[in-house]
Amino acid sequence: MRRIVGALAATLLLLGAGEAGAYMCEGLFAAAEERIKEAEGVITKDTDVRIRQKLAEAKGLLESAKIGHRQAPERHTGAIGKFSHGDAVRQARWAESLAIEVIFLATGATR
C-alpha cells in the first residue's frame, strides 16, 4: 500500500511540475528585466550609440512581450493563446539575449 501511495504521489508531483513549466512567462520577464538593469548599469555617457540602441531594443521587446501576454484572449490555451504565449516567451528571451550582448560589448564580460 505504501508503494502505491508513494508512486501516486511521485506521479502527481511530476505532472504538476510539467504544467508549471508551461507557465514560465513571468519568470522569463523577471530574468530579462534583471539583465536589462544590469546592462543599464554598465552604460556610460561614452558608450557607443549602437550599444545604446541594442539596449533600447531589448527594453522595447520586453515591453512588447508583456503587453502581448496581458492582452492574449486565452491564457496559454487555445490556438491564439498558445501563439501569444509562445510569442511572449520568444520576445522575453530575445530581450535578455540583447541585454547580455550589451553587457559584453560594453565591458567584455561574458555571461
> Which structural class matches the secondary elements?
mainly alpha
Number of helices: 4
Q: What is the percentage of strand-forming residues?
A: under 5%
Head-to-tail CA distance between termini = 49 Å
| SSE order, one letter for each helix or strand | HHHH
Give me the count of strands: 0
Q: Uncertain regions: pLDDT < 50 for 5+ in a row?
A: 12-21
List the domain count as a whole number.
Answer: 1
- The coarse silhouette is elongated
Biggest β-sheet: count, sense, barrel?
none
Helix content: over 70%
Mean pLDDT: 82
Q: Radius of gyration, rounded?
A: 19 Å
Explain what this protein looks like in three dimensions.
By secondary structure, the chain is mainly alpha-helical. It has one domain. Helix content is 82%, strand content 0%. It contains four helices and no strands. α2 packs antiparallel against α3, α2 packs parallel to α4 and α3 packs antiparallel against α4. The longest helix has 30 residues. 23% of the residues are buried. About 9% of the residues have low confidence.
Which SSEs are present, and which pair or pack?
Layout lengths: L1 H21 L2 H18 L6 H22 L7 H30 L4
Helix pairs in contact: 2-3, 2-4, 3-4
Features:
mainly alpha, 111 residues, 0% strand
In short:
This protein is mainly α and 111 residues long.
